[in-house]
Amino acid sequence: MKVLMLSWEFPPQSVGGIAPHVHDLTLALAEKGQEITVLTRGVAQEETVEKKKGIKVYPMDSGAPQPPNFISWVMQLNLGLMEKAAALVAQGETFDLIHAHDWLVAYAGKGLKHAYRKPLVATVHATEWGRNNGLHNELQRYISNVEWWLTYEAWRVICCSRYMFNELQQIFKLPADKLRIIPNGVYPEAFRRQSGDVRAIRRQYAADDEQIVFYVGRLVFEKGLDLLLDAAPRILARREKVKFIIAGKGPYAEHLHNRARQMGLYHKFYFTGYIDDLTRNALFSAADVAVFPSFYEPFGIVALEAMAAGTPVVVTDTGGLGEVVHHGKNGLKAFPNNPESLADNILWVLTYPEQAKALREQAYRDLETEYNWEKIAQRTIDVYTEVQSEYERSAWGRIPPKTVAEKDGPNRFGMPSVTPFPTGRYTTAEPGPSRQTIELNGEREGYL
Fold first, then answer.
1. How are beta strands 211-216 and 50-52 bridged, if at all?
2. Which of 30, 225, 231, 346 has the fewest CB atoms within 10 Å, i.e. is most exposed?
3. Where do the DSSP E strands lie in 83-241?
4. CA-CA distances (angstroms) from residue 215 to 144, 245, 247, 269, 289?
C-alpha cells in the first residue's frame, strides 16, 4: 500500500515524541512492504527527497514570509505540505491512503483527502484539553476544535493507550468503533548503543559516590518535575549522596531552576539542557533509577526508552504510564501528585538495587513481546487494510472526483458544482449511538 504520511516533526527536526514515533513507525511499515512518503517541515535549501530504507522523506521550508504568530506558522506549514503533495501527484506519484499525525497537519490532511478523494487515517498523540487540564483561553479552544475536526474527517482514529481512548471519547464524543488502540514502541538497540567512556561521561554530571536519579524529556508543566523537586528533600534525608540529573529543554526550565535555588537544592540538581542520543544512553546506563513524574502522559514512550536502556523506572500512575508500568513487576508506580509516594518509590530502588534488577529484566522482556515495532506495524497495516476495504466498497472508491463534478453540472457561476462533502461516509460526533448513518448523494452509506 502507498501511504502519504504527514507529520509536523521528523528527525532531525525533533521537539517531542511524535518525531521518533513517526520515524520508527515508517521504518517498520517499510520493512513490511509498505511504500511510505513522508511530508514534514524542514529548513531552507532542504527540499530534496531523502531515501531511508525504502522511505521517501520530503522535508521542506515554506519559503513564505516569517509568520507573526504560532497559528500563522501552522497554516503556512499546511500550505507547504499540500503544495508538495500536489507537485508529487502532478509528477505521477499515487497514494492509496493519507495518515496524519496530530492537529498541526489537520488542514493538509483534510484538504488532500477531499482533493484526491482518498481515505484519511489520523493518529492523535495528545489533546489540548489533556495537556492543560481543560480549556482556559481562545487559543486552547481553537486547537481543541481543530483536533475534533481532524477526528471527524478521519475514517479511523489511532490512539496509543486505553487512557487516550477514553479521553477522546469523553472530549470529542467519538464512537468506539471509530477508534483503534495501537501502542508506541522502541527499537531497544538504539538505547543500548554506546560511544566513549560511560564513566567519564558520568563524572561530568555526578561524583563517583553519588547515586543518580535521571529524568530526560521536555521541560513543561505536565511532565511533573515540580513533584520531583517536592520529593527531593525526603529522598536526601534518607540518602544524602544522590544527584538529580534533569536532561532536556523547554519553557518550564527557568521556573525549575528558580525553584531549586529557592529550596536550597540547586547543588543537588544538574540541569543539562539538550543532550545528544549517545550522552542520553550513557546517562541511562549510569543512572540508578529513571523517573517520570508526569501529571499528563497519553502514553509515556520515554518510560519504554528507559526500559530499553536497562534502567529501573519509577513513574506516576497516570495516563499511559500507568498502563506501560506494572507495579512491582517491570517498574514502580507512585500515586499521582503525591511527592511522598514518589520519594518512597525512588528510595526503594536506590536502597535495593538487586531487587530492582528483576524489574529491569522483566521490563526488557515486555518490550520484546508488547512494544516491538514489527507487531505495531502489523496492527497499523490492519487498520489501513480495513479502511481501504471500506473505501473501495464506498461511493468514494467507485466514483472519481471528475464524474461527481460532471454529474452535478455547472452552478450559477458557470463552474462545475462539486458536492461540499463528496459522496462518502461520515460519523457524527454528537452523543448517542455510534452506528449513525448520513445519506449523501442519494445513497445510505453507513458509518465510519
1. unpaired
2. 30
3. 97-101, 120-123, 156-159, 179-181, 211-216
4. 29, 6, 6, 11, 9
Contact 356, 330 (CB under 8 A): no
Cβ contacts of 367 within 8 Å, gap of 6 or more: 185, 186, 188, 304, 307, 308
3-class SS string, 14-63: CCCCHHHHHHHHHHHHHHCCCEEEEEEECCCCCCCCEEECCEEEEEECCC
- pTM confidence score: 0.79
Architecture of domain 2-185+375-393: 3-Layer(aba) Sandwich (3.40)
Q: CATH 3.40.50.2000 occupies which residues in the chain?
A: 2-185+375-393, 191-370
**Strand pairing of 179-181 and 156-159?**
parallel
| 362 Cβ neighbours under 8 A, 6+ residues apart | 329, 330
Non-local (6+) Cβ contacts of 138 within 8 A are: none
| DSSP structure class, residue 326 | -
Q: How far is CA 32 from CA 97, 110, 241, 381, 382, in A?
A: 16, 27, 49, 9, 12
Q: How far is CA 372 from CA 189, 353, 378, 384, in A?
A: 12, 27, 10, 19
User: Distance between the two ends of the chain, CA-based, in angstroms?
Assistant: 20
C-alpha cell recorded at residue 217: 524529556
Give me the architecture of the 191-370 domain, per CATH.
Answer: 3-Layer(aba) Sandwich (3.40)
Residue pLDDT tens, the chain, 448 long: 999 999 999 988 777 778 889 999 999 999 999 999 999 987 644 444 555 567 899 988 767 788 899 999 999 999 999 999 999 999 999 999 999 999 999 999 999 999 999 999 999 999 999 988 899 999 999 999 999 999 999 999 999 999 999 999 999 999 999 999 999 888 888 887 776 788 888 999 999 999 999 999 989 999 999 999 999 999 999 999 999 999 999 999 999 999 999 999 999 999 999 998 889 999 999 999 999 999 988 887 889 999 999 999 999 999 888 889 999 999 999 999 999 999 999 999 999 999 999 999 999 888 888 888 999 999 999 999 999 999 999 888 776 655 444 444 444 434 344 444 333 333 444 333 333 333 333 333 333 3
N residues, the chain: 448
